[in-house]
Amino acid sequence: MPLLRTYLADFVSLLFPQLCAACRASLVANEDILCTDCLYNLPFTNFHQQPDNIVARQFWGKLNIEAAYSLYYFNKGSKVQNMVHQFKYNGMHRIGNLLGNIAGQQLLQNSVFSTVDYIIPVPLHKKRLKTRGYNQSACFAEGLADKLNAAVEPDNLIRTVSTKTQTHKSRFARFQNMQEVFAVARPKDLEHKHVLLVDDIVTTGATLEACGIELLKVPGLKLSIATIAYAE
After folding, report:
1. From residue 55, how far is each of 6, 69, 179, 222 by CA, in Å?
2. What SS3 class is residue 177?
3. Nearest alpha-carbon partner for 100 in 154, 144, 137
4. Chain segment 127-180, per-residue pLDDT in tens
């Protein structure tokens, strides 16, 4: 029977091949979501080993953060962009869980992240959430939580205003677009806790900064940041 199941699986894969979310090559036995080559050779930043990495520097003088991190470098036309597109727009929410696991494994090597109490995803407005069906940042947060032994708080930070796309806006315009967009629903739950704020891509950091400003109004809250990718 196991041999028969293997033959059936191989036959189905010929008719309906599963493709790598990054390079779009056909997956083979024991591969899932990403092929082995992409799993190990996508452009890791290794920011967990660099306290003064470029993402952390984006927030110097703007947010009082403990640490900042991105898993991959993001460039237009790259495999990482392909993967993020599949994740955000083609319903492949499992990508977020996988990338959260990979990132969490790296962050275990940095003692700062070992003290995280709660992981909070950048929220989508309810209209966009209804359209997409899931919050990609929340999927990433769930994968991180598995490794960091922290709780996901998916609805404590809320988006009160639906904003237009940030694409092609300057950093200042992006930040202005994010003013008074977010609010903390239950600040008491976060008092004197270490919160890891997560998003998919960080470019100018304007969205994360706007979220961080609201979170840091909570007494005693410590803030760190993690994203799937940093757009160079």
Report:
1. 45, 7, 21, 17
2. helix
3. 144
4. 888 888 999 999 999 999 999 999 999 999 999 876 655 455 555 555 556 667
The answer to whether 70 and 216 have CB atoms below 8 angstroms apart is no
Does residue 158 contact residue 126 with C-beta atoms inside 8 Å?
Answer: no
Q: Return the axis-axis angle of helices 79-89 and 94-107, rounded to nearest 10°.
A: 130
| All domains of the chain in start order, with CATH | 1-41 (no CATH), 42-231 (3.40.50.2020)
Q: Is the pTM of this model over 0.85?
A: yes
Closest CA to 190 of 210, 212, 209, 160: 212
Structural tokens at position 178? 């994010």
231 and 205 Cβ atoms separated by less than 8 Å: no
